Amino acid sequence: xxxxxxxxxxxxxxxxxxxxxxxxxxxxxxxxxxxxxxxxxxxxxxxxxxxxxxxxxxxxxxxxxxxxxxxxxxxxxxxxxxxxxxxxxxxxxxxxxxxxxxxxxxxxxxxxxxxxxxxxxxxxxxxxxxxxxxxxxxxxxxxxxxxxxxxxxxxxxxxxxxxxxxxxxxxxxxxxxxxxxxxxxxxxxxxxxxxxxxxxxxxxxxxxxxxxxxxxxxxxxxxxxxxxxxxxxxxxxxxxxxxxxxxxxxxxxxxxxxxxxxxxxxxxxxxxxxxxxxxxxxxxxxxxxxxxxxxxxxxxxxxxxxxxxxxxxxxxxxxxxxxxxxxxxxxxxxxxxxxxxxxxxxxxxxxxxxxxxxxxxxxxxxxxxxxxxxxxxxxxxxxxxxxxxxxxxxxxxxxxxxxxxxxxxxxxxxxxxxxxxxxxxxxxxxxxxxxxxxxxxxxxxxxxxxxxxxxxxxxxxxxxxxxxxxxxxxxxxxxxxxxxxxxxxxxxxxxxxxxxxxxxxxxxxxxxxxxxxxxxxxxxxxxxxxxxxxxxxxxxxxxxxxxxxxxxxxxxxxxxxxxxxxxxxxxxxxxxxxxxxxxxxxxxxxxxxxxxxxxxxxxxxxxxxxxxxxxxxxxxxxxxxxxxxxxxxxxxxxxxxxxxxxxxxxxxxxxxxxxxxxxxxxxxxxxxxxxxxxxxxxxxxxxxxxxxxxxxxxxxxxxxxxxxxxxxxxxxxxxxxxxxxxxxxxxxxxxxxxxxxxxxxxxxxxxxxxxxxxxxxxxxxx
Length: 766
Description:
Blueprint: E1 35-36, E2 67-69, E3 72-73, E4 93-99, H1 101-108, E5 114-119, E6 127-135, E7 140-151, E8 154-165, E9 178-190, E10 195-208, H2 210-213, E11 216-220, E12 226-227, E13 245-249, E14 256-260, E15 266-279, E16 285-311, E17 314-315, E18 325-329, E19 338-365, E20 368-393, E21 400-405, E22 425-442, E23 447-464, E24 489-507, E25 512-523, E26 541-553, E27 557-578, E28 587-610, E29 613-627, E30 630-634, E31 640-644, E32 656-666, E33 670-679, E34 682-683, E35 691-692, E36 695-705, E37 710-717, E38 725-729, E39 746-752, E40 757-765
Parallel strand pairs: 1-4, 2-5
Antiparallel strand pairs: 2-3, 4-5, 6-7, 6-40, 7-8, 8-9, 9-10, 10-15, 11-12, 11-39, 13-14, 15-16, 16-17, 16-19, 18-21, 19-20, 20-21, 20-22, 22-23, 23-24, 24-25, 25-26, 26-27, 27-28, 28-29, 29-32, 30-31, 32-33, 33-36, 34-35, 36-37, 37-40, 38-39
């Protein structure tokens, strides 16, 4: 299920400053206004997606988008349950900030930056806030939060979030690319001046079509640039068939059925959360967070392996075949001529149940701030995916094609290769039981040391289908050429994972200092690693990070400059490899275990050189490369291909990142701001044969505080109106550098830059 197109960074930076502020939980009587920690600039500005936080690059391929709410993951894993189907940065939150890598490593066992958020669970006085947002494509977003006192020490809070987002082009089979509803209700009991206890319920209902609209056709020029194909506008034209309906085979039952893209993108979740914060007379503080969640999640991803020219119904590459396929406009006897896109649909489904508990004890002893924590996280999931292939025109709102062999007796086929190559399945659970300890130690007034350790017992158990996929693959089918029946097979594992971190900061003067830190994390296979026919390696995945640098702070300037190293051994991913012969509609899901390392340098500056003017500047150089990334792929006709990416740059991750964020405040009413982000050249396939030139992502806006109750805003996204492609190029996995010249002016498909967008907002507080 993990596509190579998911690997790189969507946008962001390599390393936030070491002194990045960690969100601190605030008392439930604070205001409803969302607070952002000073170092967490623009974490919600996302040039790839309008409905979720941006992904922060640390120079490694991404695995999960980590978001925490009230001390626990918003979702246990985003592999099946996308974060934005169950969490949004909305009026239900009192605080949103960024967790440093060292904190996530110890408290959660992951090595990544994470968005950290805290819910409003009640206020002393009746308060409310209403957000409204719209854009010129017709998006409408309503967001209402209210809180107050029930009686005595009892407080309440509630919120409603409604998103009606048609995207940047219309889909003719549904009204919205994102239709999401979130409902929250919380009740809180104040425990005198010692703390509070809260119970919160959340319901989510989301239909999201990100995975079916993210690819579009273009002409790859050969110099890193692309041209639009005739009649198609990148970002504002739809590349989906008008009807949005397909036939597929349920891999659990073997029954063939017709489905619609919108219906197969449903996500529904219910969650009950308990939060306790209590300080004893001794000064010992106890934080307890627990939640139970049940959800059904589905989504569709449609790949685009190859584009081929067809003349009078026959692909030009197959003109000499003895019995070539003949293509027709679906439902007619009219032979098709033109450019044909072969596509593959992946329909993913998951029934998920999770129970998570985190307990922390905090105490200050002289120069030490100690924390002892416990995680008990349980995740139970039943997952399956169905795949099907189809063909379409290469144009906006394409018509579907059907095909047959040249023999007159053959019936026309529109969907085919059911569950062949990419279907997946597992049914089981994971359990994490971990203890962790941290210490903020002020050795002197100039020297601070942060230490952390985590010990985790991790187990998993379940069933999967370790059989090579074939046409009409399903549970109970007979493997071709054998008498063996496809039946689930058990797997299990018990492992010990650990993490350590240490950060030292020494101030040489009141303004200038040096800093260094190191973090290491280990993990073992996750349950999703058993989704394909190949059993994953159970060898330990080892991640390590080391950084060192200097910082300087005075009353108008804050500067941090760091050099860094990050490496990951025995990383696992699954890549869908297309057959090297474009006339053969075959894709093989192939598992890789590989190493990766990144060396980088980053400098971050925040300055207020004149009154009312603020400037944030960040520069990053990084060199992410694959290590030991190679394997052989054998297709059903015996064709063997070699994947060799050792020493190559990691796809989608740029070497140079620049971020410039100036803002100016006029009086106390108007704030004018912009955000410029530059991403240098990125490679679009494993061999680094194909690449995209660098590009800018731009944002700008004006916020006007009319009075204490009303604030208005206007935002422009991509105000340079850049168009072009990003990510990887579908079907290009086997293209080598020596073959790159053959792909000049070649029609391909891939991701694209979010188009020019005007957004408007209003916030009313009461």
